[in-house]
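[recover] target loaded
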């Protein structure tokens, strides 16, 4: 079983800790901004969840990725609860990888493996794009997809 807790510090700040034992300060007050906000943590969790899937799938396919960066841009509902309504992910992959392998890895992550993505799809349309940067070249090319 996974557990998590939040201990109130002051104002809208909390010390959050999970069963892994790791802790961090979370600040819901975007004016004070002394830590990541709860909804930012959700987006960071999404990026990490899908990035983990993609790295593992590419490794299994013996695709020599040198780096992967996943970024998310999101829009929220204007009225409470201000859930995410649209999320766009950008996968930046560097290495001598096959585009088809990266596209398949992203699709598998979004449609089968990433639990965070599965939960967010209940309220948000999730789209993505892939930017490939060969290990030996400065040029890049892109492709887009939709979940």
């Amino acid at each position: 079983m996974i557990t998590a807790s939040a201990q109130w510090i002051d104002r809208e700040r909390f010390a959050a800790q999970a069963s892994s034992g790791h802790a961090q300060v979370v600040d819901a007050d975007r004016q004070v901004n002394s830590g990541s906000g709860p909804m930012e943590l959700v987006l960071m969790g999404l990026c990490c969840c899908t990035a983990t899937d993609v790295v593992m799938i590419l490794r299994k396919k013996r695709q020599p990725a040198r780096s992967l960066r996943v970024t998310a841009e999101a829009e929220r509902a204007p009225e409470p609860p201000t859930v995410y309504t649209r999320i766009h992910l950008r996968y930046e992959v560097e290495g001598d990888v096959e585009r088809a392998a990266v596209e398949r890895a992203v699709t598998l992550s979004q449609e089968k493996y990433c639990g965070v993505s599965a939960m967010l799809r209940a309220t948000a349309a999730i789209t993505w794009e892939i930017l490939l940067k060969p290990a030996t070249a400065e040029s890049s090319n892109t492709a887009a997809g939709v979940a």
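[recover] notes: The chain has two domains: 1-36, 38-146.
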